[in-house]
Every structure is written in C-alpha cells, then in structure tokens.
Design brief:
about 35% strand; Aminopeptidase; about 80 residues; alpha+beta; 4-stranded mixed sheet
Length: about 80
C-alpha cells in the first residue's frame, strides 16, 4: 500500500507498506514519512489491520537511533550467494 502524507494540499512524503500475515513491513519511506509522524501512522495502520508487528530494514545509523526511540528491535537475515 502506498501511503501519501499531505500538508496544506501539498505532498510532503510517502511510505510503502505491505501486510504479511501478522505484520506490516515498511519497504520505503521518503520525506516526512521518515519522521515521528510516519512511525505513528504506521502503527495506526498496523493496529487497524490486526497486525502484531511492524518491520523495516536499514543499514543507516540514524535509523537505528530513530527505531530504538520508537521501541523497534533489530532483525535481519542474510545469505551469501555462492557461485560454482
């Protein structure tokens, strides 16, 4: 789902969220979606759909600080691809 944030009839950010079984995953965010308001709206969307978790991934240090502030915990799985 694409979620567009609008202020004074002008777009100021967006988020791309996808529901999975018991969670909502944030695939992308831009502009004001990346701030406090975006996290609050993502939680409202999750609650309205009965989701139990919200997930996202980022390697950026700033996101670690923002995520921890909002109660997120780090989760990541990775596999190296072997050739031959």
């Amino acid at each position: 789902m694409l979620w567009l944030m609008v202020e004074n009839d002008q777009p100021v950010g967006f988020g791309v969220l996808q529901p999975f079984e018991d969670r909502i995953h944030i695939w992308a965010g831009y502009g004001k979606f990346l701030m406090e308001e975006g996290f609050r709206h993502a939680e409202e969307i999750a609650k309205s759909g009965g989701a139990r978790r919200i997930t996202f991934e980022s390697n950026r240090p700033g996101w670690a600080r923002m995520a921890e502030k909002h109660g997120y915990k780090p989760v990541r799985w990775a596999k190296e691809v072997s050739y031959g």
